[in-house]
Amino acid sequence: MHIMVTGASGLLGRSLMSLLAFRARHTVTGIAYSRAREPLVRLDLTDESKVYEALGRYRPDVVIHLAAERRPEAVDAAPERSYLLNVTATQHLARACAAHGAFLLLISTDYVYDGTTPPYYPHSPVNPLNTYGRMKLEAELAAETALAARLLHEGKKCFGAVLRIPLLYGPVERLDECSVTALAKHLLVNTPVRVEHWARRYPVHVDDVSEAILAVVGACMEHPGEYGAFPRFLLSGEERLTKYEMVFCMARATGRDASHIQPAPEPPAGAPRPRDCLMDTSALKALGWRQSRRFEESMGEILVPWLGSIRA
Q1: Which of 7, 72, 120, 254 is placed for a possible disulfide with 67 were both Cys, Cβ 3.0 to 4.6 Å?
Q2: pTM > 0.70
Q3: Does residue 90 sit in the same domain as residue 19?
């Protein structure tokens, strides 16, 4: 297959591109914009004509759409720009995929749920609490509508899919690239600080998410009649952690003192967050996917080089 990956320079994109490179049977085109370094292709996804041109040139069989503004506060600070990337760009890609007959996998979020009645299933009621969650839900619907308009007419049994994912972590280019690794900055100083101990999160390493992405694509391409025209797959980690608990995992993994870290049991300030968005992963596990990375062990691998270099 020829696979196109948007957001290929990001945290998840780098992991997926590495996994695809390891599986040499695929031809891969990585798309990026602000960090488009060779061999990635620079493309403005908000420009519909350029998106159509790119899909016409590269003719991918599959488009995996990772590019998004995922930070809820950043979405609230720049809603128009965020809408262009989160919704409009998705619609452009979906229309281009429909025109060229490509399968689209859209990465979405557990923030489409309100966090009041976990666990959530693919057909559980959605009720996003913040603008980011509402945008991603709108993107899901826009993609489904754009693809269905043409591909159902052509008789395709499965023309795309959604993978809703939780909080991600992985190897970063800077500590604040990821909201999880950004917490490690609290371990670099001894000043007392309160860290949120309210929302229950189910973080997943990007390498495990990349494996889930390829499992979904493979299943939908090989058995298109089994999952519906535009199925939703759900991914949550197996460990339930608040951000306060994450910091203590990081402290144990790196040998840092965390005695100055205090729990903040109230909801965090800023964009509203759901309290508990545990999602059922049985559909993914039926495809053979399993979580392989544990949080504390992974944090040791990710953070020790950073904390060591900063301390020095």
Answers
A1: 7
A2: yes
A3: yes
Question: Is 266 a domain residue?
Answer: yes
12: containing domain: 2-168+204-234
What is the Cα–Cα distance from 259 to 192, expressed in whole angstroms?
Answer: 8
> Under a CB-based contact definition with an 8 Å cutoff, are residues 138 and 177 in contact?
no
Kindly report whether the peptide bond that precedes residue 39 is cis, defined as omega within 30 degrees of 0. Answer: yes
Say if residue 156's pLDDT is above 90. Answer: no
81 and 219, same domain (yes or no): yes
Query: How many whole angstroms from its chain centre is CA 73?
Result: 17
Residue 288 belongs to a domain: no
Which of the residue ranges 33-37, 66-70, 175-179, 237-241 would you say has the lowest mean pLDDT? 33-37
Interatomic CA distance for residues 252 and 230, integer angstroms: 42
Q: What is the pLDDT of residue 105?
A: 97
Same domain, residue pair 93 and 222: yes
Q: Are residues 194 and 73 in the same domain?
A: no
Contact status, residue 66 vs residue 123, Cβ threshold 8 Å:
no
Q: Is residue 222 part of a domain?
A: yes
C-alpha dihedral sign at 8, 113, 207, 256: positive
According to DSSP, the β-strands at 232-234 and 168-169 are: unpaired
- For the record, the structure tokens of 105 come out as 């996998």
Average pLDDT over residues 143-154: 79
Per the structure, the count of domains in the chain is 2
Q: Is 225 exposed, middle or buried (CB count within 10 Å of its CB: 0-12, 13-18, 19+)?
A: exposed
CATH number for the domain including 178? 3.90.25.10
